[in-house]
Design goal:
The complex is a heterodimer of chains A (about 70) and B (about 300). Chain A has about 70 residues and is mainly α. The longest helix of chain A is centred in the first third of the chain and has 27 residues. In chain A, about 20% of the residues are buried. Chain A contains 2 helices and no strands. Chain A has one domain. Chain B has about 300 residues and is mainly α. Chain B folds into 2 domains: about 160 residues, no CATH class; about 80 residues, no CATH class. In chain B, about 80% of the residues lie in helices and about 0% in strands. Chain B is built from 13 helices and no strands. The longest helix of chain B has about 30 residues. The radius of gyration of chain B is 24 Å and the shape is globular. Classes of the chains: A mainly alpha (about 70), B mainly alpha (about 300).
Chain lengths: ~70, ~300
C-alpha cells in the first residue's frame, strides 16, 4: 500500500488513542460533583462512628509518680 | 456629698462581688481538662459511663501498686527518708478507688459525669502530690533507681481488671453499632453488632464492615443517613457537654467534702489528728487551679 495513505491513517489512530487515554486519566483524577457528595456523606458517617466506637486498648492516664 | 460617697461604696461592693463570682466560675472551669471533657463525651449512655469508671478504677489500681513499689524502694535507697506523707497519699488513693468503685454508672448522666470528673481530678491531683514529693526528696540518679523494674509483672497482676474493661468496651461498641445501623435504616445481616460484642471485631474492623454497607447505599440514602447520624451524635454530645458544664458548679466545695470523707475513712488506721486532716484539706484546696500553686507541671487533669 501507499505510504501516503498509511501514515496519515496511523497518525489519526494514534491521536484518537492518545485523546482517549487523556480523557480516562482526567475521569480517574477528579470525581464528578455527585461522587464528591457521595464521598462526603461516607466520610461523615465514618467520622461519627469513629467518635463513638472505643478502641479496646484505650486507657485513662492520671500521670506519673516519680 | 455623703450620698455620692454612699453610692460609690455600693457600686464598688457590687463590682467586687461580681468579679469574685466570675473568678470563682473561672477557677471551677479550669478544674476540668479538655481530655476529661473528651472522655466524658462517651458517658451519655450507662454503658459508656461504665467504661469510663472502670478505666479510672484501673488507673488508680495501677497507680496504687506502683506507689507501693516506690515506697519499698525508697526506704532501701534512703534510710532517712520519711515516707509518712507518701503513705497518707497512697491510702487516700485507695479510698478514691473505693469511691470510683461505688459510683453507679446507671445513675442520671449529670450525676455519673459529675462523679467521673470529680474523681478523675482527685486521681490526677493525688498522683501529682506523690510525684512532687519523690521529685523533691530524691536526686535524679535515685529517681532512675526508683523507676527500675517498676512495671515488671504489673500487666499480668492486673489482667482481670483489664479484662473487665475490655468486656465493657465490647458491650458499648455493640450497642453503638446497633444504634448506628438503626439510625441509618440498615440491616445487620453480617452480625456486626454480635462481632463487636464477642470481640471478634476490633474498632477498625467494625468501622470497615459498616463502611462496606454504606458504600452499597444509593447517594440519597447515604446523604440521609449521614444527616441523621450527625443529628443523633450532636444530641448525644450536647447531653454529655451539658452534664460536664453542670459538674463545674460547686466543684471546689465537693473537693473539700471528698477529701474530708477519704481522710475520715483512714484517720484511725493512720492515727491522723484533726490538724493532719486540716493540713491535707488545705493542701488540696491550695492546689486547686486559680488558687496559686496549682497541681503543677501542667499535668493533665
Amino acid at each position: 500500500m501507499n505510504l501516503k495513505i498509511i501514515l496519515p491513517m496511523l497518525l489519526i489512530v494514534m491521536i484518537v488513542f492518545a485523546s482517549g487515554c487523556v480523557q480516562e486519566a482526567t475521569d480517574n483524577g477528579t470525581d464528578s460533583p455527585d461522587q464528591q457528595i457521595d464521598q462526603a456523606s461516607e466520610n461523615e458517617i465514618i467520622d461519627n462512628l469513629d467518635n463513638e466506637i472505643i478502641d479496646d486498648s484505650e486507657l485513662i492516664d492520671i500521670g506519673e509518680l516519680v | 456629698m455623703k450620698q455620692h460617697f454612699s453610692a460609690l461604696v455600693i457600686v464598688a461592693i457590687l463590682v467586687l462581688s461580681f468579679s469574685s463570682v466570675v473568678a470563682a466560675q473561672d477557677s471551677n472551669s479550669n478544674a476540668i481538662s479538655e481530655q476529661t471533657r473528651e472522655q466524658a463525651k462517651m458517658m451519655f449512655t450507662s454503658q459508656g459511663a461504665k467504661v469510663r469508671l472502670l478505666q479510672l478504677e484501673y488507673a488508680l489500681e495501677k497507680q496504687i501498686k506502683i506507689g507501693e513499689r516506690i515506697m519499698e524502694k525508697a526506704s532501701e535507697i534512703s534510710e532517712s527518708f520519711d515516707d509518712t506523707e507518701l503513705g497518707i497519699i497512697l491510702e487516700e488513693m485507695k479510698e478514691a478507688k473505693k469511691q470510683v468503685g461505688s459510683a453507679d454508672s446507671g445513675k442520671a448522666t449529670d450525676d455519673v459525669v459529675q462523679d467521673f470528673v470529680d474523681l478523675k481530678y482527685d486521681a490526677v491531683q493525688l498522683s501529682q502530690q506523690f510525684k512532687n514529693i519523690t521529685q523533691n526528696s530524691f536526686t535524679e540518679q535515685e529517681r532512675t533507681q526508683l523507676k527500675e523494674g517498676l512495671m515488671d509483672g504489673l500487666e499480668s497482676e492486673m489482667a482481670q481488671t483489664r479484662e473487665r474493661i475490655r468486656d465493657a468496651i465490647k458491650e458499648h461498641n455493640s450497642e453503638r453499632v446497633q444504634n448506628a445501623l438503626q439510625t441509618m435504616k440498615l440491616s445487620d445481616n453480617e452480625n456486626i453488632a454480635q462481632g463487636a460484642k464477642s470481640g471478634e471485631m476490633n474498632k477498625d474492623q467494625i468501622i470497615e464492615q459498616i463502611g462496606q454497607k454504606v458504600k452499597e447505599m444509593t447517594s440519597s440514602q447515604k446523604a440521609e443517613a449521614a444527616q441523621e447520624m450527625t443529628k443523633v451524635a450532636e444530641q448525644n454530645r450536647q447531653k454529655a457537654e451539658s452534664s460536664t458544664n453542670a459538674a463545674q458548679e460547686m466543684f471546689q466545695e465537693r473537693l473539700s467534702e471528698r477529701v474530708q470523707e477519704r481522710l475520715d475513712g483512714i484517720k484511725q488506721a493512720l492515727g491522723l489528728t484533726q490538724d493532719d486532716i486540716d493540713n491535707r484539706i488545705n493542701k488540696s484546696m491550695s492546689e486547686f487551679p486559680g488558687q496559686g500553686s496549682g497541681v503543677g507541671g501542667g499535668e493533665e487533669q
